[in-house]
Design a protein that fits this description.
The chain is 52% helix and 8% strand. By secondary structure, the chain is an alpha/beta fold. The protein has 3 domains: 15-209, Ribonuclease H-like superfamily/Ribonuclease H (Nucleotidyltransferase, domain 5); 222-301, DNA polymerase, domain 1, CATH 1.10.150; 315-383, DNA polymerase, domain 1 (Orthogonal Bundle). It has a 6-stranded mixed β-sheet, sandwiched between helices. Helix 3 crosses helix 8 and helix 9 runs antiparallel to helix 10. The protein starts with 14 loop residues before the first strand and ends with a helix.
């Protein structure tokens, strides 16, 4: 007789957790056979990393959906996941918000998938203003995804059941959402926009990841600093890196970029600097040592302000940019999409400066902006 007060058994997992090469090989072979007979040939991929918990960010989990068959692959236990990557390269591969995933996959495996599709891009091209996965699942299926594990430490082992369940849900709903979005994109004549935008994302990730930063300490906001402020910013950044590496913790948990820039501005203004409350005595001493060292250093040794890559815009160029942005707003309003999808303001500035719209816009963006580009840029030529 069953105990009416007993806890009901948890539902059986509909995914496999894979943490050995042999298991991965077996599952990949099973998926090859499954995808041959399945009417749906698409796959989905998501990743989890530990950037919020460790100094060296690393890939900690691969969530895979092969036409409705799910697996969670442990890259911390399996160094070579190439059989999986080869399988995924043979199929259309769907992500949600692929930018970070593509970046981590490229850095970890030097892998760039052959054909990607992104439900976040699709949602935005259809006019969605809330395009997080939870919002899309709620809208499509009236289901509430639990996001409690979003900021968890994915390097921990074993992963508890709630984190595994969260992880597989990140790929569980992508194909039904994809079906809905592809139908709507086709109906609106925007499917080609979608394909171009997905290719552009891959190209952007590859180009960005290939650029090595010469001065990584030049964080956002430092452009307004003078050499004195830059000197202490550089010293604080180097100190923070050392402490974060020593403690195996993310740099921002020691001191944020915003904090460092604020200290540099105070230092330039001649204001007294005091370390954050709660710092241990050693850190406070080292903070004051940094301040004293910069005070004693020669101005000739301070870093120079970075030269701006863009020249100063002329009044005529500003006028062209404003007119193109206004045209962009009008076109976007008619399409019921965000104006930035037709090109960011920075993109419009670049194309005005070099006079070459085709090199800065995807062809679908160029087609939609053609009327404004022709009018504004031709007026500029006539005025010269």
């Amino acid at each position: 007789m069953s105990d009416s007060g007993s806890t009901p058994a948890a539902p059986a997992a509909d995914y496999e957790f894979i943490d050995t090469p042999a298991h991965l090989d077996r599952w990949v072979n099973e998926m090859r056979a499954w995808l041959k007979v399945s009417a749906d040939k698409r796959c989905c991929l998501d990743t989890e990393a530990d950037s919020l918990h460790h100094y060296h960010e690393k890939l900690c989990l691969l969530q895979v959906n092969c036409a409705g068959r799910y697996a969670l692959v442990d890259p911390l236990a399996i160094a070579d996941v190439s059989p999986l990557l080869e399988l995924l390269d043979a199929h259309e591969l769907w992500f949600h918000g692929a930018d970070y995933d593509l970046t981590m996959l490229r850095r970890t495996y030097d892998w760039n998938p052959k054909v990607i599709r992104d439900t976040q891009i699709a949602a935005r091209l259809l006019g969605a203003r809330q395009f997080g996965l939870a919002a899309l699942v709620k809208n499509a299926f009236d289901l509430d995804l639990c996001k409690a594990s979003q900021k968890a430490d994915w390097s921990r082992r074993p992963l508890p059941p709630n984190m595994l369940s969260y992880a597989v849900d990140d790929v569980r709903y992508l194909l039904p959402i994809a079906d809905k979005f592809v139908a709507e994109l086709k109906a609106k004549g925007r499917e080609d926009w979608f394909h171009q935008s997905c290719r552009s994302l891959q190209e952007d990730v590859a180009a960005r990841d290939n650029v090595s930063r010469e001065d990584p300490w030049r964080v956002q906001g430092c452009g307004r600093l003078h050499p004195k402020g830059l000197a202490i910013l550089k010293a604080m950044w180097e100190w923070r890196e050392g402490i974060a590496k020593e403690r195996d913790t993310p740099c921002f948990k020691i001191m944020s970029n915003k904090q460092m820039v604020a200290y540099a501005e105070q230092f330039e203004a001649g204001q007294p600097l005091n370390p954050p409350n709660g710092w241990r005595p050693r850190w406070k001493k080292e903070f004051f040592d940094i301040v004293a060292a910069i005070m004693a250093s020669a101005p000739a040794d301070w870093p120079a302000r970075a030269k701006k890559t863009k020249g100063r815009l002329s009044d005529a160029q500003r006028d062209q940019i404003d007119k193109l942005c206004a045209y962009r707003e009008k076109v976007a309003q008619g399409l019921e999409i965000e104006p930035s999808l037709l090109g960011s303001r920075a993109t419009i500035e670049d194309l005005v400066i070099d006079g070459s719209p085709a090199s800065h816009l995807m062809s679908w963006q160029h087609d939609l902006m053609a009327g404004g580009l022709e009018q504004v840029l031709q007026q500029a030529v006539a005025a010269e």
